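Regression test case RT-17, inverse folding.

Input:
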């Protein structure tokens, strides 16, 4: 069971489904389903029920997400645990997020190299600044992963400098980061969305980059492709499946905000695990084009309740009770 986030963007759903197609080819011995937390159908429960109806005795659920923030730590476990509690005769196991993985870093490097090849200008890496963009969450542990990915790519690929930014929720946002980095004097800026799929957020990142290119014509701005269905992405999903087959993997929770170490989020420690997507399951795509639920803010791109969604504005320490059990 491949568990996706979901998006109001039809292209994002198509790309997620493309991932499922690749995995079906790689894993012919497995009955495979996929579903979404919100904004798209089928929802995760539909996929789980479909596997059960076809006679599955064991279900291995994998998060189709890069990092462990609220969805991986809270919402997906809540969905999986509820299903497992209602079906005690089934063995249901939950895997870990893709995380920071050498294969994904290699895939990222190749996407950046693709962008470099589109340029007709000869600019060295030493004269290039890399801007890595993450989704942005209200979980500092997940946000810090973007900083690590940035540093790994910076040193590994030999860029003159690197910065990171976020598409929402966390700061700096991409537009502010682009304004800042152009002052550093590099001839080229490569903007790389560290995302699995397209969607409202990726398209906004590219729009911000185009706007910066118009404001600063003396700097070359290149838009790198996101990860999408790179073969190494597929390989990483297979690795996560093999972990589940071999045992019960655990995510690295050392700096999780639901533990005491996360400064500024002390009130989240030990909070009750609960999902937060009842109101947006299956809505917002072409299946339900007008049913946007109570969380629209008039901006045309999603709702904002402190997770890694399609947000507009960052906010500080959005303390919600979505703890989890380790």
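Golden output:
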């Amino acid at each position: 069971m491949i568990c996706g986030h979901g998006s109001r963007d039809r292209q994002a759903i198509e790309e997620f489904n493309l991932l499922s197609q690749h995995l079906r080819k790689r894993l012919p011995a497995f009955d495979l389903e996929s579903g979404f937390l919100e904004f798209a159908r089928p929802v995760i429960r539909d996929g789980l029920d479909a596997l059960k109806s076809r006679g599955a005795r064991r279900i291995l659920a994998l998060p189709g997400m890069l990092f462990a923030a609220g969805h991986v730590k809270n919402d997906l476990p809540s969905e999986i645990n509820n299903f497992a509690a209602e079906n005690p005769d089934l063995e249901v196991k939950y895997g870990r997020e893709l995380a920071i993985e050498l294969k994904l870093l290699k895939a990222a490097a190749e996407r950046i190299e693709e962008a470099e090849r589109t340029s007709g200008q000869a600019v060295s890496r030493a004269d290039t600044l890399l801007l890595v963009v993450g989704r942005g969450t209200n979980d500092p542990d997940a946000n810090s992963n973007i900083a690590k990915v940035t540093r790994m790519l910076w040193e590994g690929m030999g860029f003159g400098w690197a910065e990171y930014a976020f598409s929402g929720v966390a700061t700096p946002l991409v537009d502010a980061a682009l304004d800042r980095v152009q002052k550093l004097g590099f001839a080229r800026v490569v903007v790389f969305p560290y995302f699995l799929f397209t969607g409202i957020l990726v398209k906004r990142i590219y729009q911000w980059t185009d706007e910066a290119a118009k404001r600063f014509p003396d700097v070359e701005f290149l838009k790198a492709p996101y990860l999408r269905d790179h073969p190494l992405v597929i390989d990483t999903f297979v690795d996560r499946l093999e972990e589940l087959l071999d045992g019960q993997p655990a995510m690295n929770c050392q700096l999780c905000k639901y533990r005491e170490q996360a400064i500024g989020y002390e009130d989240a420690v030990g909070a009750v695990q609960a999902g937060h997507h009842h109101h947006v399951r299956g809505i917002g795509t072409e299946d339900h084009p007008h049913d946007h639920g109570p969380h629209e803010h008039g901006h045309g791109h999603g709702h904002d309740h402190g997770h890694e969604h399609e947000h507009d504005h960052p906010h500080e320490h959005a303390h919600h009770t979505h703890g989890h059990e380790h």
